Amino acid sequence: MDYTIFAVATFIVALLVFGGVFLIRPRRSEPPQQQPRQEEQATADSGTAVAEPTETESAEEPAEGSGAVAEAEPATPATAEPAAPEVETPPPSAGRMVRLRSRLARSQNVLGRGLLNLLASDKLDDDTWEEIEDTLVTADVGVESATAIVENLRTKVKVLGSRTQDDVRQLLREELLTQIDPNADRAVRTRAETDRPAVIMVVGVNGTGKTTTAGKLARVLVGDGRSAVLGAADTFRAAAVDQLETWGNRVGAPVVRKDEGADPGSVAFDAVARATEDGADTVIIDTAGRLHTKTGLMDELGKVKRVVEKKSDVDEVLLVLDATTGQNGLRQAQVFSEVVNITGIVLTKLDGTAKGGIVLQVQRELGVPVKLVGLGEGADDLAPFDPETFVDAILDGE
Ligand SMILES: Nc1nc2c(ncn2[C@@H]2O[C@H](COP(=O)(O)OP(=O)(O)OP(=O)(O)O)[C@@H](O)[C@H]2O)c(=O)[nH]1
């Protein structure tokens, strides 16, 4: 009986071993056969030498007859570091507005010629004065400034009696300059009074040119022999961060950035910390564009500033206004000013509008000076605002 059980058990074990050899072996041999086929397919599909050589493929023995693999020159490793971008040396900012005057003249000269013609007319009656006022208002000077200019000119013309072309030009020049206020402090505070970096925040509604201004301003500083750190606190738009990084790389200014959607306050804070560590002269913080009517976003901007203030004073809050938007720009300015206390205006796209009078209006309404003007899309088309050059471009043309 025991013998029978032993014989049956031996038979079953033998059967399992025998069956295992035939059933299991063929399956285990399949994957190695499939693997090379998949790799070949990938190389063929891509049409380029994207496939990295596997450990079993010797780099010295490229597969014969495969053009794609043959192109994968092992001498150039796929992980090669990209060449460091060339750092540019931008020109200094002094006299830049004079150099760019022709752009200003091209867009603003219609206003100047119109005013000079009217003022030179034989009879300066009420209708003519009204026309002068209308011309000023049409150029976005604003009703209050236009009225003030006309009243002052009327008085001076009466005192003067007869008028030559030169007299008229001189009178108008003086009056426009008075309204623009040549004595306002227009220096951008790029150097802190104490031993720390100056902090500049760049704010405004969407698409006015904030990122471009932050980048161009870094160029201005580097061109003037200073150092800058850029903070990419526009975390809503990944492209803005990349754009700022490109600007920074071009002039060797470090850019502090975080992932898209990160807290803008923390980016701004880190940028100030980085500038402090580096001993940089200035940190420029680019913020996301936001409609002044969106309360939540405006509150967020206020928070960004407060977070920065935990680390440092904010020396300058530059509001970027698109000169082509006229009255709407003014309303934006008022709301931004309430939330983050604007210290200077950057008027961009002044090359693309005949309504340069906005300079007068925005200063009058806000009591904040225009400090910088954008006169084109070129890297060095941001200029410190100079009232005399501005008025002369209006009156004399190119
Ligand atoms: N003609 C002209 N174009 C300008 C000037 N300044 C900026 N731009 C252009 O305005 C466009 C918008 O500029 P951005 O710097 O991207 O604007 P932004 O305010 O950062 O935009 P958001 O982040 O979307 O709010 C770009 O095409 C700039 O080249 C200027 O002074 N003149």
Q: Could you give a quick summary of the protein structure above?
A:
This protein is an alpha/beta fold.
Description:
With 398 residues, this protein is α/β, with parallel strands linked by helices. It has helices at 2-28, 30-46, 67-71, 96-99, 101-119, 126-138, 143-160, 165-180, 210-223, 238-251, 264-278, 295-309, 327-340, 358-366, 387-396, and strands at 198-203, 228-233, 255-256, 282-287, 316-322, 344-348, 370-374, 382-384. The protein is elongated.
Keywords summarizing the entry:
398 residues; alpha/beta; Rossmann fold; 8-stranded mixed beta sheet; 15 helices; 8 strands; binds guanosine-5'-triphosphate
Poorly predicted runs: 15-78
> How confident overall, as mean pLDDT?
80
Helix content: 40-55%
The chain-level structural class is alpha/beta
**CATH topology of the domain at 198-342, which one?**
Rossmann fold
| CATH superfamily caption of the domain at 198-342 | P-loop containing nucleotide triphosphate hydrolases
**Rg on CA atoms, Å:** 35 Å
Please describe the biggest sheet, giving its number of strands, its sense, and whether it closes into a barrel: 8 strands, mixed
Helix count equals 15
Order of helix and strand elements from N to C terminus = HHHHHHHHEHEHEHEHEHEHEEH
The proportion of strand residues reads 5-15%
Bulk shape: elongated
| Chemical compounds bound to the protein | guanosine-5'-triphosphate
- Say how many strands there are: 8
Question: What is the CATH C level class of the domain at 198-342, in words?
Answer: Alpha Beta
The termini sit apart by 122 Å
> Within the largest sheet, what's the order of strands?
3-2-4-1-5-6-7-8
Q: Would you identify the CATH architecture of the domain at 198-342?
A: 3-Layer(aba) Sandwich
Binding site for GTP: 204-211, 286-290, 348-351
EC number: 3.6.5.4
GO biological process, one term: SRP-dependent cotranslational protein targeting to membrane
Transmembrane segments: 6-24
